[in-house]
Amino acid sequence: MNGSDPLKQYKERRDLETSDEPLGEVSAGGDAPIFVVQKHAASSLHYDLRLESGGVLKSWAVPKGPSMDPAVKRLAVPTEDHPMAYAGFEGVIPEGNYGAGTVIVWDRGTFANLKEDKGFAASLDDGHATFRLDGVKLRGGFALLRTGEGGKPGWLFFKMKDGEARPGSDIAGERPGSVLTGRSLEQVEAEEEPSDLPDFG
Question: What are the sequence ranges of the domains in the chain?
Answer without folding.
Answer: 8-180
